[in-house]
Amino acid sequence: MTHLKNSNTNDSLWRKDPHTLYTVPVEHVLNDYTNVQLAARQVNSTSSVLRQYMLRSHHHLFQYLGYSHACAVFATMTQILATFSWNFMDLFIVIAAIALTERFRVFNRHLQAVRGKVPLYLMIEWKRNLVAHGDAREK
């Protein structure tokens, strides 16, 4: 099978979409900053800000379990792991799509090169059939 030797390997992912790696973390930090800022407006002490931030950002969790620092740490770790895995999967899908696109470009170039020509394997098969039919006629 033909490899990507004919492809343009100078086009890396970073040249095609350089802001991909920067927009997601910035968006995440800005969202967290907004939640911390809103929590700080409602309370005075640092621990209360943390508590208010966690209640605001993970309300679906603390609505059922009630707030505790251990649960807040677990929720933060889970959020970080989920964010990284989500971003990794997004980048994986982008890279796979770029690779598939490039493979189809190479395949299309090969198809264009043989357009209108009879492939060799068809000629060989045609000759085999011709010989087989010729042998059958003689018997």
Topology readout:
Blueprint: H1 13-16, H2 20-42, H3 46-57, H4 59-65, H5 69-113, H6 120-138
Task: Outline the structure in words.
The chain has 139 residues and is mainly α. It is built from six helices and no strands. The protein has helices at 13-16, 20-42, 46-57, 59-65, 69-113, 120-138. Helix 2 crosses helix 3 and helix 3 packs across helix 4. Mean pLDDT is 77; it is low at 1-7.
Give me the count of strands: 0
How far the N terminus sits from the C terminus, by CA atoms, comes to 42 Å
Total domain modules: 1
Report the total helices. Answer: 6
Based on Cα principal axes, name the global outline: rod-shaped
What is the averaged pLDDT score?
77
Please sum up the structure shown.
The chain is built from six helices and no strands. It has helices at 13-16, 20-42, 46-57, 59-65, 69-113, 120-138.
Keywords, separated by commas or semicolons:
disordered N terminus; mainly alpha; 139 residues; single chain
